[in-house]
Design brief:
Blueprint lengths: L3 H44 L10 E3 L6 E3 L13
Antiparallel strand pairs: 1-2
The structure holds zinc ion.
């Protein structure tokens, strides 16, 4: 869906603007935002079901496949260890 060239252009444009407006720290902040967005997008891509966008840290139970918080010790569905 997303053209890599468009994504790269957007990244460089936003990075440049951030550098102008907020300095190096702004650039770091935008970089972190893109990293988080990329990680969330990758998870949603191979997870099958797309979440509502707010579940940045989820993991699939290896036993039953239920979605659980990434920091949970046991599956909320089958109670197997994660
Ligand atoms: Zn489970």
């Amino acid at each position: 869906m997303e053209n890599p060239l468009v994504a790269a252009g957007a990244l460089v444009t936003v990075a440049g603007l951030s550098l102008l407006v907020a300095g190096p720290l702004g650039l770091v902040f935008v970089g972190v935002l893109f990293l988080v967005a990329g990680v969330v997008g990758a998870k949603e891509g191979d997870g099958g079901t797309v979440g509502s966008g707010g579940d940045a840290a989820k993991t699939n139970c290896p036993h039953c496949g239920a979605r659980n918080d990434a920091d949970a010790d046991a599956c909320h569905h089958c109670e197997e260890g994660l």
